[in-house]
Specification:
This protein has six helices and ten strands. It has about 290 residues and is α+β, with helices and mostly antiparallel strands. It has a domain of about 170 residues: Translation Initiation Factor IF3, CATH 3.30.110.70. Helix 2 runs parallel beside helix 4. The longest helix has 24 residues. The protein is globular and about 75 Å long. It starts with 6 loop residues before the first strand and ends in an 18-residue tail after the last strand.
């Protein structure tokens, strides 16, 4: 797929947006201290830059082996007030307002992490983690955090995706190394979310099923539908990047602050593209662990 073949640095992509922030200018929403912190990582006259990274030593070496150099630890944060949505006690349904809030809050954090990576001139961000923290300010307020290590190709090849952004990936350094050996490249961390209210059972239904082994079809259907919505939205994001697949998919379920009948289903994975149809995948090697 030609859209994702690595291109020489400086060659503009036909799909690359023209509104990317210029070096030295962070988009609105990032604190001024971020600019100063990132400036310390860059080489400039009279100042020798250094990189920061949350990669382990092994991951650092493997990232270097496939031709990337870490530039700096990048992050994005959004403290978000999550609103209230009414729900029917006896009806299973998606709570679309809460779904939108959980998605937008994560996207704000991801966009700010991307902005820091762009400021450093990165081709991508590896080892991305998305976390949600709750503080004592209130049960309806949460901080959404995205962190990772910005990396750049050492041979000048651009690995930015068709949207002109640095790729993002939650793969470990080891998995990233293996992926690159197969002729695939990461395009972006894609996600889909669905906040779903699962209907309560009535007293009569509870009594009829007491002591019996029986499927609860209403619960089964509700959970199935919620997961499908999250998975479909993740796949839609991958399609927007012209991905050929998604690796490392995981499906997380959390009740957050809503109680046991309202659950967020979050689907995450790394969208990838095959860039070399004639690439020969190395044969796996047997490794015997001596750790006992």
């Amino acid at each position: 797929m030609t859209d994702h073949h690595p291109q020489p640095e400086g060659a503009p992509s036909p799909d690359e947006p023209t509104g990317a922030p210029a070096p030295g200018h962070l988009p609105e929403g990032l604190p001024p201290d971020a600019n100063r912190r990132l400036a310390e990582l860059e080489d400039r006259p009279g100042h020798k830059g250094m990189f920061t990274s949350d990669l382990s030593v092994n991951e650092f070496l493997l990232i270097k082996e496939v031709g990337f150099h870490p530039l700096g630890f990048v992050m994005g944060s959004s403290i978000y007030h999550i609103g209230i949505q009414t729900r029917r006690w006896s009806q299973s349904q998606e709570l679309s307002k809460l779904t939108e809030a959980m998605y937008e809050a994560r996207q704000l954090a991801m966009d700010r992490m991307d902005a820091e990576a762009t400021e450093l001139g990165a081709d991508g961000v590896v080892g991305v983690r998305l976390d949600v923290n709750y503080y004592e300010w209130g049960s309806d307020t949460a901080e959404f955090i995205a962190v990772g290590t910005a990396v750049k190709s050492e041979d000048g090849t651009s690995y930015r995706n068709r949207q002109g952004k640095p790729f993002t990936s939650d793969l470990s350094g080891q998995d990233f190394w293996v992926l690159m050996q197969t002729g695939h490249v990461p395009l972006g961390l894609v996600m889909g979310t669905c906040v779903y209210h699962i209907a309560h059972r009535g007293v009569g239904q509870t009594l009829r099923n007491a002591g019996r082994n029986v499927e609860l079809p209403n619960f089964t259907q509700a959970l199935y539908e919620a997961r499908e919505l999250a998975m479909t939205r993740m796949q839609d994001e991958a399609n927007a990047l012209d991905a050929t697949g998604i690796v490392g998919v995981r499906l997380e379920e959390k009740t957050h602050m809503w109680g046991d009948h309202t659950i967020e289903f979050l689907s995450l994975g790394t969208a990838v593209a095959d860039t070399a149809v004639d690439h020969t995948i190395p044969q796996p090697q047997t490794i015997i662990s001596l750790d006992g």
